[in-house]
Protein: Lipoprotein
Organism: Mariniflexile litorale
Amino acid sequence: MKFLIILLSLVFIDNGCSASKVNQDAIFLEYSMHSRGSYQLITITKKSISVVSKRDENPVVKSCSNSNWNKILKVLKPVDIENLPNLKAPSENRFFDGASIANFKIIYNGDTYKTPSFDHGNPPKEIARLVKEVLSISENIE
């Protein structure tokens, strides 16, 4: 009987935390990468994907498809966004021009959660899948 109660509790808790309960229109993702010779700024919302590939350039904007947005939500769900400022970069090549400097930011309902800088191509493991998905989606923008 206890097992059944615990199982039902877990089912109700999981349903209460589903992505459908989240205000998806209030999610804003931003990935930036820069070094002396390169620059990239990617922003993704439920409605659009924007990519700036050079400083002082106009963004290339495309609507965000439902499949891309659902991929983002899937990899965003396990991320503890309140812990983003506490993440540790797995490498420090950006300190000596060995890698571009990258930052990741999530804005949700007006609150901003930003990671410390990390090496482009080597994000903290807690957000690695999310960063990979953001970069993958942005590559299809022309």
User: Anything to note?
Assistant: The first helix runs from residue 2 to 16. The helical segments are 2-16, 66-76, 128-139. The chain is about 25% helix and 25% strand.
